[in-house]
Specification:
The protein is of the alpha/beta class. The protein has helices spanning about 15-20, 40-55, 70-75, 100-110, 115-125, 130-145, 150-160, 165-175, 180-200, 200-210, 215-230, 235-245, 250-265, 270-285, and strands at about 5-10, 30-35, 60-65, 80-85, 90-95. The chain has a five-stranded mixed beta sheet with strand order 1-3-2-4-5, with helices on both faces. α6 packs antiparallel against α7 (about 150-160), α8 (about 165-175) packs across α9 and α11 (about 215-230) runs antiparallel to α12 (about 235-245). The protein is elongated. The model has no long low-confidence stretch (mean pLDDT about 95).
Length: about 290
């Protein structure tokens, strides 16, 4: 068969990048084979033809177990041909031996994302550069499949644009189930933090009140909320941490700690400030 961009030979050093990481973007099918294996040679052209017919929606990675025995050992390959599908960095399905082309095509099709899932994936890629188009794709996806995960993506996108009423409506709909996923909880916290800041008159009013009454720690907590609502996260952490230090067992210290924990969730574990101030808070508390 002619060279194809969707059919690749994979060596041991390439396996993690070409299979495990790539499968977080699209399904990757691994064909474990050997040149002396007649069933492998019988399956190969059929498998390649099927994969090529999907025109880039799936990748076929061929592993010669004679050349790369360590991969075969790692995957527990005991007989060939063995075909393993990877999605999201994990093996999700497999078959052994030769199967008819029609059956093979159906097997590949069940690995592929639905149209609704494809729209979500496209929206997530667009989120940082074209929020209007990203929102349109999420809403189109919801018309096809009203997935809760898609609703959370849409709520997050709306909240990032300060469209809190629209985002809150989605969160309320999700909360009516009796629970919220962690990401949805963080979106709710973000919206509530902004609402609290607005009720206190915004950052300028909160800062003026805190400066005028430095001994009133509740005003410092309000200032921390207002700072976080404006994206001044480091200053918010400093203000809230100072309240915890001054009132570690009191109500204001508890409120400041809770706000810090909420802000950790809003920013996410990968944020540098989260690691720094989580450590500082733990030092104070323990």
């Amino acid at each position: 068969m002619a060279d194809s961009p969707w059919v690749i030979n994979v060596s041991t050093p390439e396996f993690e990048e070409a299979v495990l990481k790539k499968s977080t973007e699209m399904p990757v099918i691994v064909d474990f084979w050997a040149p002396w294996c007649q069933p492998c040679l019988q399956l190969a052209p059929v498998l390649e033809r099927v994969v090529n017919s999907f025109a880039g929606r799936v990748i076929l990675a061929k592993v010669d177990i004679e050349q790369h025995q360590d991969i075969a050992m790692m995957m527990g390959v005991q007989s060939i041909p063995l075909v393993v599908a990877f999605v999201g960095g994990q093996p999700v399905n497999h078959f052994a031996g030769v199967v008819p082309e029609e059956q093979l095509r159906a097997w590949v099709e069940q690995l592929l994302p639905s149209k609704a899932e494809e729209l979500v994936n496209e929206a997530l890629k667009l989120e940082a550069t074209d929020q209007v188009l990203a929102e349109a794709k999420l809403r189109e996806s919801l018309e096809l499949e009203a997935a809760d995960s898609t609703k959370i993506h849409l709520a997050r996108l709306l909240a990032s644009q300060n469209r809190d009423a629209d985002a809150s409506a989605i969160i309320a709909e999700l909360e009516a189930r009796g629970f919220l996923e962690p990401e949805a909880e963080h979106i709710k916290d973000q919206i509530e933090m902004r609402a609290t800041a607005q009720e206190s008159g915004g950052l300028l009013a909160a800062r003026q009140a805190a400066d005028a009454n430095p001994s009133d720690l509740s005003l410092q907590v309000t200032l921390g909320d207002a700072l976080a609502a404006e994206g001044k996260n480091q200053e918010a952490f400093e203000v809230l941490l100072a309240v915890v230090q001054k009132d570690i067992v009191g109500p204001n210290g508890k409120a400041a700690k809770e706000q810090m924990v909420k802000l950790f969730g809003i920013l996410g574990t990968g944020h540098a400030l989260v690691a720094e101030y989580r450590r500082k808070l733990a030092t104070l508390l323990f």
